[in-house]
């Protein structure tokens, strides 16, 4: 087919096709020796489409040439490495921009907390399970950080879950501070601060710094949108009517073995019973249950992360009925609390 038709079918301009031909990345199937017109074969459409997509993610031409001639597994590896490099470069640029902004504004950073690195990393990773990627509400992808001389509280919510954890600082700060920190940046930073004995958390213009002696300073940006009033959400939760304490490992294993996306539990007597589609018990987990018996359902993607991040060998479920949020916390430690919304009983799974 003529170069114009091929360009329209591939989304590449004729000038781009000429460039890729001159670069020996995508050669025409035929060139008219008299007119010099270039013609392409339909079999080249797939290669051209892959070429276009690789260039759309800013892969350099030498790497594109290698990827087009590589096998599927090798291409996947090359794409992952390329994206990792882009993210690394972006993080480095963000740090340098923050340093430059701090220098130009001549405003010193403000110490808001001193924490053990592994403790901070665990808290960040646990709470971030309740975030969501929502372009209409970017703040749901952030972690709300509140610092005072007495405590540091981390909170996240995706409107179906709410997770909050309170830490005691190693050294009390002299001020009170709060803001929403970008979750993606914190997720990357957590892997680094986990290897640091002590981390100083400092607030600066538009972000926070995580500083330690062992590693390069890390910068995470702030989100400007207002974080939901989670304290009002917690205050509105009614008193629990049923409490069940169960082995975390057994509960997670039962969910992993379930073939259903909807988890339905009968909480009664001395057990948590997993129900099948026809509401028959499929698994029974021993549990310490007090209060009224009830039946409640959750989406696996909501309930599993909430249980998996609980601290300790046993989890305590405070239930309030089939339409009310369940509180999930450690049976012996209360510094991490997660709320998860159930699915309404009339929900069509």
From TrEMBL:
InterPro entries: DNA-bd_dom_put_sf, DNA_clamp_sf, DNA_polIII_beta, DNA_polIII_beta_cen, MerR-type_HTH_dom. SUPFAM superfamilies: DNA clamp (SSF55979), Putative DNA-binding domain (SSF46955). Keywords: Cytoplasm, DNA replication, DNA-binding, DNA-directed DNA polymerase, Nucleotidyltransferase, Transferase. Residues 1-70 form the HTH merR-type domain. It holds the Pfam family MerR_1. It comes from the Bacteria. SMART domains: HTH_MERR, POL3Bc. Belongs to the beta sliding clamp family. This is DNA-binding transcriptional MerR regulator. It comes from Hoyosella altamirensis.
